[in-house]
Amino acid sequence: MFITRGTPKAPPTSERRRQSTTRMSAPTVELPSGQQMPVLGLGTSQAKPTQVTEAVKVAIDAGYRHIDCAMKYGNEAEIGAGLKAKFDEGVVKREDMFITSKLWNTFHHPDDVEEAVKMSLRSLGLDYLDLYLIHWPMAYRRGESLLPEDGEGRMMWDDIHFTDTWKALESCVESGLLRNIGLSNFNSKQIQAVIDVAKVKPAVLQVECHPYLNQKQLLQFAKQKGLVFTAFAPLGSPGRTSVKPGDPSVMEDPKLKPIAEKYGKSVAQVLLRWGVQRGTIVIPKSVTPARIQQNIRVFDFALTSEDMAMIDGFEIPHRFIHLDWVSHVPEWPFHESF
Q: Annotated site (Lowers pKa of active site Tyr), which positions (predicted)?
């Protein structure tokens, strides 16, 4: 369960409409380092560089203080431009923001880790990162290509274990480049392997999580191990490039609309509220100003226990982000049930 600060009580329905144009901030959870991490942030995966600067500016104006980034997204320089604009305007200071980035698979070699961190810092225009995650437990072949393939189109991998990568990240914490470090897309066995060797314990686990993949077992495991749990794709990743005919859509589940209507909220807001209320951090992505502003307005209402139980029961399960084309790579995480 989160230990949060600043969680508001839900106002009457009449006040919700009046608050619809005001700035709202997210409560926070305390990490083992003592740092506060907002429980809702702006996701930036798949955001085009031409759109993401404005999205970051809109988000900060709307009250977001948590931005989730990654080298692989190819837009960190543009995110940095959005941050700089708001720093220069005096809207926020650096210490007001919680910025996450991630180590890509081709930089797992311990000799490459610090430079990868510094590359993201240069792109973002920052001196340190609040959180840095190993993006995936899989190591791809070192080199200039972020997606190194052989002549048959198969991903080439390196025999580098993520526990060695972790030790290099710990050095970046010691040097002050990183405030917190964690894991993304790791299964329970891989998480335990890191914990077993860690001097700096992982603070956060980030994985795909929504009502069609509620990750109950992994969430419970993370809590037992003291990791804060972040849910990416909390809306079911409706904007992903890999949509296939017949894929289920969380946002279009007919059981959600009556719940949304009951609270005068959107289906997206109900999904985000479900995520926060069950003790996860959520990082919905959008570049549409109205949706960015709407997504943070989930702290002025609470779902009933009956609503929560109904949504908990949606489990199909269905994973939208599975990278099954690299299942031959050692440490592909989805061979395990959780």
A: 102
Q: Is position 212 annotated as part of the catalytic site?
A: no
Which of 73, 132, 140, 212 is catalytic? The answer is 73
Condensed to tens digits (0 to 9), the pLDDT of residues 63-115 reads 999 999 999 999 999 999 999 999 999 999 999 999 999 999 999 999 999 99
Q: Which two tokens stand for residue 108?
A: 């797992």
Domain ranges, ordered by start, for the chain: 10-141+155-237+248-317
Q: How does residue 247 score in pLDDT terms, banded at 50, 70 and 90? A: confident
As a CATH number, domain 10-141+155-237+248-317 is 3.20.20.100
Distance CA 41, CA 54 (A): 15
Specify the pLDDT at position 46: 86
Q: How far apart are CA 257 and CA 3, in angstroms?
A: 30
User: Backbone phi, then psi, for 100, in 5-degree steps?
Assistant: -110, 140
The residue type found at 229 is F
Angle between helices 188-197 and 162-174 (to 10 degrees): 50
Mean pLDDT of the chain: 92
- What pLDDT, on the 0 to 100 scale, is given for residue 242? 62
| Dihedral of the alpha carbons of 293, 1, 314, 43, in degrees to the nearest 10 | 30
In which band, very low, low, confident or very high, does the pLDDT at 239 lie, cut at 50, 70 and 90? low
CA 260/CA 268 separation, integer angstroms: 9
User: Strand 66-68 vs strand 4-5: parallel, antiparallel, or unpaired?
Assistant: unpaired
> Does the annotation flag 135 for ligand binding?
yes
- Is pTM, for the whole model, over 0.90? yes
Dihedral through CA 272, CA 11, CA 7, CA 64, nearest 10?
60
